[in-house]
Amino acid sequence: MLHGWAVLLVFQLVGEILARAAGWPVPGPVVGMALLLVALQRGFPATEALRNVSSGLLSHLSILFVPAGVGVMLHAPRLVAEWPAVAVSLLVSTAAGVAVTGWVAARLSRGMEDAP
Q: Is 73 left (phi over 0), alpha (psi -120 to 50) or beta?
């Protein structure tokens, strides 16, 4: 179990260092998890300890949204004051997400038709 935590924390640390050194506007833990994904795809051993820790974190994922909800409530007056910009950005980003997802699905399904 400790080995699984160590792997996650090392990848988070490497991601944090890389994001800060490169000046990327992406959180270090996100970069670390992307690196872990690449490492696992390239054959990094997914040990039972890593599986157990990951499963435990995923089963309590909803708790991680509490700070975001508190932050939204903390800034509620600002959201009320700027609701048109928030509404437009939500609508545009949702429409863009649906459009890109549809485009990717169409491209992938065309590729699947050619497969034997």
A: alpha
30 near 2, Cβ under 8 Å? no
- The Cα angle at residue 63 between residues 25 and 32, in degrees rounded to 5: 35
Q: DSSP state, 90?
A: H
Contact 29, 15 (CB under 8 A): yes
Residue 18's contacts (CB-CB under 8 Å, 6 or more residues apart) are 24, 28, 31, 35
Query: Model pTM greater than 0.90?
Result: no
Whether residue 50 contacts residue 43, with contact meaning beta carbons closer than 8 Å, is answered with no
Lowest mean pLDDT segment, chosen from 17-26, 47-56, 88-97: 47-56
